[in-house]
Write a structure and sequence with these properties.
alpha/beta, Alpha/beta knot, seven-stranded parallel β-sheet
Length: 282
Amino acid sequence: MSESERETPTSILHAVRVVLHEPQDPINIGATVRAMKNMGARDLHLVRPCAYEPNRIEQVAHDTRDIVARIQHHDSLDDAIADCVRVHAYAGKRRAAKWLRMDPRRAAADLLEYAPGKPVALLFGREDHGLPNYALDRAQVVVTIPTTEHMSLNLAQAVLVSLYELHVLAGDVTRQLARPRRHASAASQRQFELTFADAELSLRSLDFFHTRNADHVMRAVRSLLFRASPDARELDLVRAITIEVRRSLDRVRVELGAAPREAPPASTRTVGIGGPGATEAE
């Protein structure tokens, strides 16, 4: 076992074998390898492939030497899938035979039921005519990718769609998105209550509740913010906005020659960690 294999945790997708039946273009082999690398599959089996140079494959699919080194060749399809316990064949055209048919999402769930054991296979055919009937006869499931009436997916595109569904369903996402540079912690219940209290005070300053039920409005505000799930920095911004509303009202009153109006008390319904009538001083 190589050092890279020891460092890479075992994936359920390592049981998934991609089988290309008589691929005709080295570019499609390279693009298939690239799709496999991105989605976590590693075993590519080629049945009577066209001539290709491994170095050229690596030029098409960068940093895939590990997969290219594992490529296996077979003289017959039967040899390529002999030890597989489940075979899914991808076909773009409807045939008269009544094979068990699935779409890629349902097929991914079906295949992963068998993957923890022996190998399972995704089978794809030639670029010109797809898989012949005798190849489809060897599959337990025939998979068709839903498209428009155009129905002209490239071989490697079909491979990518099938592996993507498996990758997502397996929860085997190996590339984690980085956190924002200024990552904020989750908002505390105290922060929520202070924000609700200040929001209510500001709405009362605007006489917003003159024709509206305060309890109903504030309950909707609570529901809205809870569903939005703001982090601590975002919630502080919301609270600062509500406080600035009151300050702006006071400035306008001073400019008009009126004394700043005392903030009306918040309703006793706004009870929480911040307590009723919490203000910006807290």
